[in-house]
Design goal:
The protein is mainly α. It folds into 2 domains: about 180 residues, Up-down Bundle (Growth Hormone, Chain: A); about 180 residues, Growth Hormone, Chain: A. Helix content is about 75%, strand content about 0%. The protein has 14 helices and no strands.
Amino acid sequence: MSAAARPGTGIRTLVFYVVLCHLAYGGARVATSLAGLHLKATPLAIGIILSFFNLLPMVLSISAGRLIDRLGVAAPTTYSVAALTLGIALPFIAWDIGVLYLAAVLSGTGFMLMHLCMQKTAGEVGREGDRAANFSLLALGFSVSGFLGPMVAGFTIDHLGYREAFGVLAAAPLIAFLGFRRARYPDSLKGHDTAEAPDATPKRVLDLVATPEMKRLYAAVIILSASWDVLQFLVPIHGKQQGFSASQIGIVLGAFSIGSFVIRIALPWISQRVSEWPLILGSIGSAVLVYALYPFFSYFVAMIALSLLLGLGLGVAQPMVLSVIHRSAPEGRIGEAVGLRLMIIGASQVLLPLAFGALGSATGMAPLFWGMSVVALAGGIYVGRGHHEVEPAQRPKPDSKQDEGLL
């Protein structure tokens, strides 16, 4: 049996390319902030530049998902990785503060589209029973690249320079671009001709939440995304108030990443024994507990333990959410359903720091932690009300050797 046809080879190759792209994207975000400071940009200007990474993806993710459903993943993946590569390389080609704005738009939009394509692809590789394990491996890859990207950016800036760092980072998605061009995709990922579709009725976003399970799912996405983003915002402020150094705050946040990394290693084994919804509810429960406890602990070790616990809990969520989307989204609209998830995450990343920053100035930090715990608890009760319901039948999936041998 050839390497291309051996079961499991496809998803591992896929994750390798995704790691390269996410490594470059995460590193570029860090390099952009530092480059802006080096070029004497104001904090407001840097904030605007960084918002460009998420602003357009937040607006365009649903439309991009529809495009992927219609065209398939092959062409969008190739063009999105090309845009990502060009966006990261632009500051290396033309070193100017204005170029950073265009670079953020290109790389942010390119990464969003690639991310959508790869999440849809991971749900179609191999057999139906492989889906949860595929998403677990993909999430594990994101954890690895999330560690490596900022480290690569910082190391190259210190040893080569700001401009050169963008050139080094752009090499990673360039390798992925060459790999994706050679990729072979199963028929289920080649899109469909809408002109020949039997149902020509207009598609509405609200159709994605037409079933009780999908309503619960997107409610869970809102809670989980908020729980993830609020930690990144509140912990540095809380730590600073406790007199922690920047390195100590980084270690506390790093504990969260370690927790998510560890649980994702074990997730393929866990997902074979526990279904999606109990794991999603467990993730929400971890957020309720950790945010309720955080204000009571100012000790460095205790904060590390709490962040580690939250990482273990929330690290389970993404693969399980994607598994439910692929099982329960309307036929032919998986990309759009994943796009709606990314829109929610993007909105969270843009709006929550503003809202919590304003509230924190008025109320202090403890009410924010407790407020997040109460919101997660209320949302978890809503999401958990229907966990005993029989899940909808799974759509039939071709079980061909071609599907097993992706990439």
